Amino acid sequence: MSSIMGRNLLTVDNEVFRCFTFYSCLLFLKVFAVAVFTPIQRFRKKAFISPEDTKLAEGSEVREDPDVERVRRAHLNDLENIPIFFMSSLLFVSIDPHVMLAKWLFRIYTIARYLHTLVYLLTIPQPARALCFAVGITCNFIILAYVVYNSFSI
């Protein structure tokens, strides 16, 4: 394993960093798409959270709508989980892990997060969403365990 001081691992010359960058971009796009879908759903359902927003669509009112709330919860779940992946994965890249291990962990995590959102928005019964969540958490745990083991091994 190369040290970050001896070799710049946070560059496109590093295949693991390129992979991290690619999957991070896919996750950013997903978070952005769900964020954009929230106001679209609000307009579609004419359900807003602030009185001033009701002026934007005729016939709208301040109220909660289950479909809007489902999209908001999916977005909130992304905001609670994906930043942990970004931070832990950046640490992972900095310790120069095996390329295939990194690729598969990044790939599996990204697929799990996309599936989690899809399952959530389509209201697919449990345990589908829980399994997607568990796969993502497991990837993060493996990444962090690898970082701790390789950074602080005695």
TrEMBL record:
- Where found in the cell? Endoplasmic reticulum membrane; Mitochondrion outer membrane
Primary residence: endoplasmic reticulum
Any idea of its EC number? 2.5.1.18
Q: Which top EC class applies here?
A: transferase
InterPro entries listed in its UniProt record: MAPEG-like_dom_sf, Membr-assoc_MAPEG, MGST1-like
**Gene Ontology cellular component?**
endoplasmic reticulum membrane; mitochondrial outer membrane
**Acetylation: is it a keyword of this entry?**
yes
Listed A to Z, the keywords are:
Acetylation, Endoplasmic reticulum, Membrane, Mitochondrion, Mitochondrion outer membrane, Transferase, Transmembrane, Transmembrane helix
* Record-level Gene Ontology MF annotations: glutathione transferase activity
**Membrane topology recorded in Swiss-Prot or TrEMBL:** Multi-pass membrane protein
Q: Which reactions are catalysed by this chain?
A: RX + glutathione = an S-substituted glutathione + a halide anion + H(+)
Q: What is stated as this protein's family in its record?
A: Belongs to the MAPEG family.
> What is annotated about its quaternary structure and interactions?
Homotrimer; The trimer binds only one molecule of glutathione.
Please report the name of this protein according to its UniProt entry: Microsomal glutathione S-transferase 1
Could you read off the lineage of the organism from its UniProt record? Eukaryota, Metazoa, Ecdysozoa, Arthropoda, Hexapoda
